[in-house]
Amino acid sequence: xxxxxxxxxxxxxxxxxxxxxxxxxxxxxxxxxxxxxxxxxxxxxxxxxxxxxxxxxxxxxxxxxxxxxxxxxxxxxxxxxxxxxxxxxxxxxxxxxxxxxxxxxxxxxxxxxxxxxxxxxxxxxxxxxxxxxxxxxxxxxxxxxxxxxxxxxxxxxxxxxxxxxxxxxxxxxxxxxxxxxxxxxxxxxxxxxxxxxxxxxxxxxxxxxxxxxxxxxxxxxxxxxxxxxxxxxxxxxxxxxxxxxxxxxxxxxxxxxxxxxxxxxxxxxxxxxxxxxxxxxxxxxxxxxxxxxxxxxxxxxxxxxxxxxxxxxxxxxxxxxxxxxxxxxxxxxxxxxxxxxxxxxxxxxxxxxxxxxxxxxxxxxxxxxxxxxxxxxxxxxxxxxxxxxxxxxxxxxxxxxxxxxxxxxxxxxxxxxxxxxxxxxxxxxxxxxxxxxxxxxxxxxxxxxxxxxxxxxxxxxxxxxxxxxxxxxxxxxxxxxxxxxxxxxxxxxxxxxxxxxxxxxxxxxxxxxxxxxxxxxxxxxxxxxxxxxxxxxxxxxxxxxxxxxxxxxxxxxxxxxxxxxxxxxxxxxxxxxxxxxxxxxxxxxxxxxxxxxxxxxxxxxxxxxxxxxxxxxxxxxxxxxxxxxxxxxxxxxxxxxxxxxxxxxxxxxxxxxxxxxxxxxxxxxxxxxxxxxxxxxxxxxxxxxxxxxxxxxxxxxxxxxxxxxxxxxxxxxxxxxxxxxxxxxxxxxxxxxxxxxxxxxxxxxxxxxxxxxxxxxxxxxxxxxxxxxxxxx
Length: 777
Known about the structure:
Largest sheet: 7 strands, mixed
Subunit structure: Homohexamer. Organized in a ring with a central cavity.
Number of domains: 5
Binding site for ATP: 355-362
Strand content: 15-25%
Number of strands: 26
Protein name: Lon protease
CATH class of the largest domain: Alpha Beta
Domain Lon N-terminal: 8-204
Shape: elongated
Strand order of the largest sheet: 19-20-18-17-22-25-26
Radius of gyration: 48 Å
Helix content: 40-55%
Subcellular location: Cytoplasm
């Protein structure tokens, strides 16, 4: 391979690459390019043609051009209008651009002209195989491409010699200019051969894939076209026979819409949608969406209601049979029935049953529906965080459907069912919308007569629906939503209530579930009490029911394996079926002690007692609080200390006592978090007892918050706290005076045997709590 350096006029090509052995014409419009062609004609007609890297570049520099170009001879020049020159050029050899000598008035470059005519190709089997392989690739490409004439292909196939064949195929193959440039760049013949072969094979594969895709698209289009033609033919045949089902569907819809009892707005919407359905017969997708919407509107019970049962005696009987206790709820329902019976209309109340798990909140709604003889539907709101779950999806969305409220009305088949919104406190909110705000319209008696579901698009009257909501706590329910509901607290069951519930409801239910007859197994009252006290720790009866089921399973096995006719469960043999006791109550202390006071606490599973211990020791005036106390209890302890310091002279406490002593307040069961405004007077009493050395009565418990001036503030959860005190064997309980109204509402079953003393100042608390006698100091 030889090379020589020459100075030649140069033309920068845009969007095309000229190869050696290629004869091609192109148009030139740039003044410098026209000047370069004219200069070449003056000299020896030789010109250097190199491709620009970017088509948009108007005045290219050396860095804007590819390094390798083609030296060719100008064969013809034709001047065209608008200062355009058409040039016919024959490509001859490769040239490497060394440098641009000058740019004006035309581009002139120093070019290293490469002459590879002296390359020898071995005429052995390898050479012949390469030649034949290249021809086969070219034939495949030409057949797939379809843009090359048969004469041009035949002319290439007649060429003998691998070098000439490579140059001719590169010159005659319609590849993209960047692909041709890659082949042109290869000054080494063998690399050029590999690059050309790769491009041909690659292009054939691309065209195969393209052909396969086009074939699939054609098949799909043909299939849809065929289905359309067949559908039209079938439609025509049915019309001829008078059996056009689509038209009959539209007629059926119109007939059903006419018979539907619904507001005028709904009827107009239906008529409009049925007309749309008739006009969308040629579009199966659209007609399917409209059909579903029309069917949904027709299935809704717009003006279809169920007559209420106004029989108060029947309602009372049903509620008493299904539930023991829950007197407040039963009374409220009977009041609603009485008002409904007198007014013949009456707005449905929105009751919110709040209480611990397992206290019968959910099942009360079923009993309500049964008492009213109304349909019952339940919607679980636990974890719902998408507003569309309540309001529905708009029809524009794929798979749109009505919201849960509208669906529940449709399922009930009446516009005035009993609807239970279960676990309303567990609704969550995220980027998909505020679900609580969506519920505001549902549960507002002033708004819900025109509730708008996004899917239905017409107002839905919810004013006659009897809504019952349940919650474990009111803390997570927003105030505006809570304001729309009538809150009824369902408190913990007493042991006596649990006994009645177990005997009347739980045991019969579990016997039936486990295939046992009443004569095969019996439970004593003391056994049930022991189960409730020592094997469960809950406000409701869910765990108690599980334990009864546990006994039933073991009893069923025992009856089958030992052939016993009956089994009696008593307080003495219950451990045989349930194992050792799981819970024990911290009973009243045996004797009065200094610095130990029994407090009362409310928990999510009922009431409990807390023993508060205080020690005083020599130190520097530090106060230590242990037992995993929350912020509120820590503040209560600090308030108690401040109160004690303010009245220290009354209790003959030395002026420098608090500077020379440390006080340690501890509440045992350190692993259990404790917080809440109800232990203030308890901690203050324990601290005064420890400081003065006076003993506190062991049979006494107390609950209440204290202020800096010693006033006793009211607390909540009194029923559960008094139950805990009674279970622990406490005789006297100190209660804030403002809570005495709550005490009056409690049944005698709870208060019997308890001396409940109202207190409104710490002086009264200490007078009742501190045992008579001298100080131990």
